[in-house]
């Protein structure tokens, strides 16, 4: 076997081992998931009450904490709150039962109104030319089958062998009237299941509220106590947030149901309490809950009123309430977003409804919120936050690099537009674009990014620069505190060098003939893409910048730089994994050809300590790790030259200029 093939086999073994281990882990996860779903389905009779009890414990924990702060012991506080909740539940159940009974008795009264509306609708359809032609076409299609008997034909008596057969005699089987004991047994059997569920819920609620601290400690022990401080803070924070969220949501939905009940009563819709309770429950189901709750009273209003005024008033009531609550009340109290992605809400509602029926539909969002919170605070369950949470699946720099790989400059520009609503363009380039290019540099060193893909990334960067050319590099107006800034969790990049500071917004900027800056790529097309970002920033800050590829650092390429009039040269390198000797020799050749130029070695997104070490080894005039540092230095250099030389001529447009043989610096107006 050749030596090269032997090396390939040896190198492939660890990867195969990793792939096999990954496959085993995926299969184990799949088996555990299937097992969990099976347990949830088989044990739903006991798990549904437990789930309801857990959610109710979150809702009731806040009133218990209020009573505890007032000095009441835990057991009396729990009993008072649970008794109050039971009283409210039984009162609502009694009102609901009465409303359902009255509605069932009154439904036959609305049959005439329903038949009249159906007749008018049928007459409307029959007089419509389009529907009439469609009905005629369907009728003609029915006559195409010769074996089909004509609807006008008179049925002939049954015959068999030429003899007539008598028609069969209808036989009706009647059950005997149920005995009083059987009726009682049926009623008790029907009511036993809800009462059994309610009893289990009450028992578990009391147990969870009384043993809250013990259950919390056991859960911490279960998920791991290696970092007890972090786990405790995370669990307390998660429990507090969930409790406040569910309590607030319950109160908002209850208020929504009360307003619906009052509104339907004023409109005249029968059984308003019934539909108010339905509206309260259905608002726990996002997106479609309000539609479902509005459909029942709308249909009843259409059946009660011979006209359509009552139905339209009912529809308007739900529409106005949902707009007010969804767009004003909920964002003000706890934020409109539940932390779930829209697709996760729909999938979870479908899943829990299939698993547990209608009660699963009501509990779907609260249960999914609990799973997402667990995923955010428990490392073993982090996949739940990725799958169900509304946080971006990719970080901004990962999204940037992923779009670079497919050459999608439009989506990158959209991302930048969102970022620029709260920050400056140079901050986007520093915190997102350069970090994304640094990921490309890592792939290049791993040997998975070929030259053609590098050129594609560079061309996409050029297109993004063109798309963002109209933006001024100035921070926008301050955003109000409650609004969350996009990408606000981005970490700051490497600290700027002590001698470099961003000039204030009112600092004078060069205009007219400008100081020449050469932005030269250090090694490859990725360095050239980073240099292109710097060139655009310098142009926006009044500097004359010229972009040069990495071939200009060769002996033949540097000859073309002689006489360019460049006063500042910036060498662009992504990261700190660069040969100091290579940079040093490039700087040495540049000094021979352009001895008057200041040379900046930019190691983008490099660690500050590593950058300082490279700066000492390469003999550069200055080293930088961020675009803001280089722009600040160049602007400061131009301003210092203007202040020292002073203007010698006046431009008719009001801009004073200073002319020199090889370069031109301008002063401020």
List keywords for this structure.
single chain; 669 residues; alpha/beta; Rossmann fold; five-stranded parallel sheet; three-stranded antiparallel sheet; 23 helices; 10 strands; 65% helix; 6% strand; disordered N terminus; disordered C terminus; AI-2E-like; transport; membrane; cell membrane
How are the SSEs placed, and which strands pair?
Elements (H helix, E strand, L loop, with lengths): L2 H40 L1 H26 L4 H33 L4 H17 L1 H14 L16 E2 L2 E2 L15 H31 L1 H12 L4 H40 L4 H11 L6 H16 L4 H25 L8 H15 L1 H20 L4 H7 L7 H11 L2 H12 L4 H22 L4 H17 L48 E6 L3 H16 L3 E5 L6 H4 L9 E7 L5 H14 L4 E7 L3 H11 L3 E3 L2 H19 L3 E2 L5 E4 L4 E3 L3
Parallel strand pairs: 3-4, 3-5, 5-6, 6-7
Antiparallel strand pairs: 1-2, 8-9, 9-10
């Amino acid at each position: 076997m050749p030596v090269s093939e032997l090396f390939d086999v040896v190198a492939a073994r660890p990867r195969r081992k990793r792939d096999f281990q990954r496959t085993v882990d995926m299969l184990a996860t799949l088996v555990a998931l299937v097992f969990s779903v099976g347990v949830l389905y088989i044990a739903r009779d006991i798990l549904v009450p437990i789930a309801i009890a857990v959610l109710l414990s979150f809702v009731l924990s806040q009133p218990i904490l209020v009573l505890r702060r007032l000095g009441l012991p835990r057991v009396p506080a729990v009993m008072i709150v649970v008794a109050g909740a039971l009283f409210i539940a039984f009162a609502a159940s009694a009102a609901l039962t009465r409303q359902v009974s009255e509605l069932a008795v009154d439904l036959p009264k609305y049959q005439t109104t329903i038949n009249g509306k159906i007749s008018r609708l049928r007459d409307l359809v029959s007089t419509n030319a389009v529907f009439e032609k469609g009905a005629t076409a369907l009728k003609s299609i029915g006559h195409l089958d010769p074996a089909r008997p004509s609807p006008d034909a008179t049925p002939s008596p049954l015959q068999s062998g030429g003899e007539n057969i008598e028609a069969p005699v209808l036989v009706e089987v009647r059950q005997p009237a149920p005995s009083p004991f059987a009726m009682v047994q049926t009623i008790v059997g029907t009511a036993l299941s809800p009462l059994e569920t309610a009893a289990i819920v009450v028992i578990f609620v009391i147990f969870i509220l009384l043993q809250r601290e013990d259950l919390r400690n056991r859960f911490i022990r279960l998920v791991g106590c290696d970092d007890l401080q972090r786990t405790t803070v995370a669990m307390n924070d998660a429990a507090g947030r969930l409790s406040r969220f569910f309590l607030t949501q319950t109160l908002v939905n209850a208020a929504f149901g009360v307003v619906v009940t009052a509104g339907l009563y004023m409109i005249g819709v029968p059984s308003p309490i019934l539909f108010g309770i339905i509206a309260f429950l259905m608002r726990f189901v996002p997106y479609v809950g309000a539609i479902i709750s509005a459909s029942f009273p709308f249909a009843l209003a259409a059946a009660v009123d011979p006209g359509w005024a009552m139905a339209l008033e009912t529809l308007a009531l739900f529409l106005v309430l949902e707009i007010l609550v969804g767009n004003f009340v909920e964002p003000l109290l706890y934020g409109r977003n539940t932390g779930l992605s829209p697709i996760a809400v729909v999938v979870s509602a479908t899943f829990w409804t299939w698993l547990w029926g209608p009660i699963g539909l009501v509990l779907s969002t609260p249960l999914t919120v609990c799973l997402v919170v667990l995923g955010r605070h428990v490392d073993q369950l982090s996949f739940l936050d990725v799958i169900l949470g509304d946080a971006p699946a990719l970080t901004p720099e990962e999204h940037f690099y992923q779009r670079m790989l497919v050459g999608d400059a439009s989506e990158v520009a959209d991302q930048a537009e969102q970022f620029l609503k709260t920050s400056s363009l140079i901050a986007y380039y520093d915190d997102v674009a350069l970090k994304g290019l640094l990921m490309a540099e890592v792939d290049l060193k791993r040997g998975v990014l070929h030259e053609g893909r590098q050129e594609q990334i560079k061309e996409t960067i050029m297109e993004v620069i063109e798309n963002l050319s109209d933006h001024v590099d100035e921070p926008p107006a301050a955003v109000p505190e409650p609004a969350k800034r996009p990408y606000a969790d981005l970490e700051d990049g490497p600290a700027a060098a002590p001698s470099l500071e961003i000039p204030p917004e009112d600092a004078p900027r060069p205009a007219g003939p400008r100081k020449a800056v050469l932005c030269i790529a250090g090694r490859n097309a990725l360095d050239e893409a980073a240099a292109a970002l710097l060139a655009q920033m310098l142009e926006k800050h009044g500097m004359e910048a010229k972009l040069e590829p990495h071939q200009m650092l060769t002996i033949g390429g540097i000859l073309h730089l002689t006489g360019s009039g460049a006063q500042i040269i910036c060498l662009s390198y992504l990261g700190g994994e660069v040969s100091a000797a290579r940079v040093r020799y490039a700087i040495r050749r540049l000094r021979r050809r352009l001895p008057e130029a200041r040379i900046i070695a930019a190691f983008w997104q490099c660690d500050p300590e590593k950058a300082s070490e490279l700066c000492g080894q390469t003999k550069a005039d200055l080293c930088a790790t961020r675009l803001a540092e280089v722009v600040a230095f160049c602007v400061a250099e131009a301003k210092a030259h203007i202040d020292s030389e002073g203007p010698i001529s006046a431009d008719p447009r009001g801009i004073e200029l200073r002319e020199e043989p090889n370069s031109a610096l301008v002063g401020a107006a």
